[in-house]
Design goal:
Keywords: Membrane, Transmembrane, Transmembrane helix. It comes from Enterococcus haemoperoxidus ATCC BAA-382. This is ECF transporter S component. GO terms for molecular function: transmembrane transporter activity. It is built from ten helices and no strands. The chain is an all-alpha fold. It has one domain: Orthogonal Bundle (Arp2/3 complex 21 kDa subunit ARPC3), CATH 1.10.1760.20. The radius of gyration is 18 Å and the shape is globular.
């Protein structure tokens, strides 16, 4: 399994969050949209920084690129069906099988890569962070162990991932309207998005359970065959 360094990641992430909070206090409320976008970008930075400094195995890079491509393909093939996509499931499975850092990379890279087809914008950093965090948490040792053992927990994680993604992206939607956060508007968006959120949660749970064992077996063979650790 590709090694993790979660303590270092959390330390750097907390440092970035602290800097962003200081930035918020220095700007007027009208700039919260900009600060929130910088916060999302900054939260992605620690993982990318570590991989920039790390002596990477080219085989590991190819594997990450392959999983990212599969996730993007999953989003593209199902784009005609609102909220139904296997992309999040593939991100979750990547985290479970290869660890939290790879899960984060596959999630965030899938967001920015697939948006080359669906449209880039200020929402992209939010998608990168939210999908990346979904993959990262799935790869944490304790959660990873639980999800490997039971389809019920895997389905539950898919549902929670869908709720988190929808709730988090609605924060961006509120900011995008007039650069000001309103709880009333946020709650209204959550209510109107209920059908979409339910469909997305169901898709995450269904595709995670459907694809997990087959992808896990193939990844295990690749890790052994090419000696990726």
């Amino acid at each position: 399994m590709i090694k993790n360094n979660t303590k270092r990641f959390f330390f750097r992430a907390l440092l970035v969050l602290l800097l962003c909070m200081i930035g918020v206090s220095l700007f007027q409320a009208s700039q919260y949209q900009i600060i929130s976008m910088l916060l999302a970008i900054g939260a992605c930075f620690p993982i990318y920084y570590r991989y920039e400094k790390k002596q990477l195995n080219s085989k590991e890079l190819v594997l990450i690129a392959l999983l990212t491509a599969i996730a993007v393909l999953g989003r593209f093939l199902f784009y005609m069906i609102p909220a139904i996509t296997p992309m999040t499931a593939i991100i979750i499975i990547s985290g479970i099988c290869l660890g939290s850092e790879v899960g984060f990379l596959v999630g965030s890279l899938s967001a920015i890569t697939s948006n080359m087809l669906f449209g880039q914008g200020p929402w992209t950093p939010f998608q990168m962070f939210s999908w990346g965090l979904i993959g990262f948490l799935a790869g944490l040792p304790l959660i990873q162990k639980i999800l490997r053992k039971s389809y019920w927990f895997l389905a539950l994680y898919g549902i929670l991932a869908g709720l988190f993604f929808s709730f988090f992206m609605d924060v961006w939607t509120v900011f995008s309207i007039d650069r000001y956060f309103s709880w009333q508007r946020y709650l209204a968006l959550l209510v109107t998005a209920i059908p979409y959120t339910i469909s997305y949660c169901f898709a995450n749970a269904f595709f995670s359970c459907l694809l997990f064992r087959s992808i896990q077996k193939k990844l295990q063979r690749i890790l052994i065959k090419y000696d990726i650790k």
